[in-house]
Every structure is written in C-alpha cells, then in structure tokens.
Amino acid sequence: MPLEILLPLVVMGIAGIAFTLHFLGLTDGPGLSSDDAARKAWAREFPDAPATNVARSITGRAALVETGDGLGIVWRFGADTTARDLEGAEAQVKNDTLILLLPDYDARRVKLHLAPGEAEAWAETIGQKT
Amino acid sequence: MMDTLNFPKVTEIAVPLFIAAILIELLWIVIKGRGGRYETRDAVTSLIMGAGNVASGILLGFVAYGFFMLLWRITPLDLGTSAWVILLCFVLDDLRYYWVHRFGHRIRWVWASHVNHHSSQHYNLTTALRQTWTGTFTFMMVVRAPLILLGFHPAMVLFVGGLNLVYQFWIHTEAIGRMPRWFEAVMNTPSHHRVHHGRNARYLDANYAGVFIIWDKIFGTFVPEQDREKVDYGLVRNIGTFNPIRVAFHEWVGIFKDVTQPGLTWRERWMYCVAPPGWSHDGSRDTSETIKRKHLERHPEDRGTPGFEA
Fold first, then answer.
1. B126 touching A, CB under 8 A?
2. So what's the ipTM on this one?
3. Measured between alpha carbons, how far is A111 from B193 in angstroms, rounded to an integer?
4. What is the pLDDT of residues B224-264, one digit of tens each?
5. pTM as predicted
6. Inter-chain contact A28–B26, Cβ cutoff 8 Å?
7. What angle do CA B62, B63, B66 make, to 5 degrees?
8. In degrees rounded to 5, what are phi and psi of residue B91?
C-alpha cells in the first residue's frame, strides 16, 4: 500500500477510535472503592507481601499500603490498577498532586491527584518510611 | 532461480479491516454490555505500538530481507511458487512462529521485544496490534533460515508470515467464547490465546501457537482455558505507563540496568540477557517456574490440574 494512503489511514484510524472511546465514556475507570479493593489490587501484583495496613485516598485513585517489607503504592491505571513498592522512591507535592519518582523505567513518574492536604501527608509518610 | 518475486503486503492491506473490526467489536461490547473491555489510553497506546511496528518494518525490514536474500543466493534449492508449496511454507512457517514465540517468552533478550504485546491489562482487538518495535534486534530472523535454505523464496516466507499475523488478529477478543470443537482442536482460537495472555500462575508459558494449536499439543505447552479460572490479562508485574516509548523499551532498559550493575561475574551478566524473564543472580526475583511453585504452596489443591501438571 502506498505510504501516502497508509499514513493518513493509520492516523485517522487511531484518532477516530480514540475519539469514539472517549465519547463513549471509556476513558479511565472506577477507583479503589474500598480498602478491600485496594488490598486485592495490591495482592494482584505482590502476592508474597500481603498488605498489613491500607490508607486509601479520598479520591479513590490510590492507596498507600504497608507490608512486612515496607511501604507500597497501588493506584488506578486507566481502567485497571498497578502497584509498586516504594523503596528508593522520592515524593514531591504540587498543589494537590503527589508526584512519585520511582526507580522504575515503566513507572518513572506517577502523578496522583489527591484531596486537599492528602498529598502533603502522604509525602511525609513516604519520606519517613522509605 | 528467481531473485525477485512479488507477494501482497498483507499486513498493510489488512489495516482498513483492522480498524473496521475494532469498531465492530467496540460496538458489540457497548450494545451487549459484555464480550470485553476498552479503555481509551490503553487502546491508543496499543494502536500507536501497531503503527510503530509497521514503521520499524519499513525502516529496518531491509536487515532481515538482506539476510534472507543472502541465504537465497547460497541455497541450491528452489521449490517454486505453486499453491502446494505456499501452503507447505505456511504450515512450516507456523512451526517457526511457535518456536520464535516460545523463545520470546523464555529468553529475556527476545522477551524484551515481545513483552510489550503482553503489557496491556485488556484483551481486545487493539491488543493484537500492540506489537514490537525492536524485533530486528532479537535476531530471531535466523529461525527462518532453514525455510529459505530448503528452497522457499524469501518473499514467500515473508508473505506467509504476514498471513500468520493477520490470522492472529481476530483471536484477540473476549467477544467470542469458544469455536466448534473440531476447530478448537486444530486451530488457535480466542479461547486458547486468552490463556496465552493470562498472568495467572496457571496460564504462564502456555499456548505459544500462531495459527495451529497442534504445536502446543505436540510440544507439551497446551493449557485449555478453564471456566473456573477467569484469565487475568497483563504482565506478572504490570507496567505503569501508557507512553509508547517506555512500553517499547522498558525491558531493554531493565536488561541494561541489570547487566551493568557492579559486582557481577561475566556469566551472571550473560544470564541477565538470555535466562528466562525473572531470573536474577541472587534469586530475589521470580521466574514463571517460581511463581507456579509458590502458587502451589498456597493452593496445593491445584496440583495436577491444567497448567500445574509438571
């Protein structure tokens, strides 16, 4: 297929699908609806390190997780969740956004929009415990 | 002996069909309220990965093709281009695909290229297009060498390889449950391939087939989808980015970091490249074998069931 046909087809195809999905309300998904949901989301990634304590954000976008090995974070990722331990993490706060700088190329900079005051509190906890 | 031979570029021709099929699947899911899930950024990332795969083929395809043409000049054999030869080439290339795919899950250097295809937590037709940008660097083109040395023209080998990939598009869906029994017995299907995309301990390292599921049955890697255990899609440790660059290169970066850490022997550095994903010099990470073993410690009742037989 000539490039002058293939290229617009691909670009318009991607844009069209993206627009349709967003228009259908399929951007993002439900947050962590309960502490139990946060525990399950954590266990899905770290089955060997069960959560002993969970602090779920008011927005439901993330939860700080305490385990026998230290502190971790689980957060909403699109319609799903993912998680990381916070060893070597650096926390910054900008307005009500907690920015986690992780030593991890596939989750280098995690931005979490939290409730007022929550970002500072979480950053302090992370600073103390990591 | 023919030097030039033209076959259609099937993966490019199929692009409009891919787009139409994605829209139909999406419509089906929205109307029926079942049959899969879509999320905007996940789907867009997959589609960009697909476009990048085509672009990398255009930019780097000459490497593999040059290698194949070199072999073609060396070989005294030429099987011609009859329909039977093309059919035989398709079947043998599918066997080639099985092994390349198996290497892709068992050798970290090859996994670094293939991992992005498994990096979505969704399983829909866009996931099929979440393809590698770095396949050339795995050197897996050498696995095609026997086909060309046997007398299959390089253009034919690439053509049937394209058909293989186009076949695999439709099996990336939850909208289709199971196909007729005879079809499930011989062909790779949505059900079989859902298993392959599972991060459940039971489903790890299973169902590498491209078109014919018989290869998995022959080589002992077949695991049927279990009604009592829903497939959980994605990676054992899911990525936390939709950035296509990071999706494409994250495992390569991981290899680089591991190989260059201080205090390792040369053997350990080598093993970080070629050992199965999850291997570590100090045993601090889990391979699929470790994950299965740990699962059985937590769930001994699963021992001997599909995926936990060995």
1. yes
2. 0.94
3. 34
4. 999 999 999 999 999 999 999 999 999 999 999 999 999 99
5. 0.95
6. no
7. 75
8. -65, -45
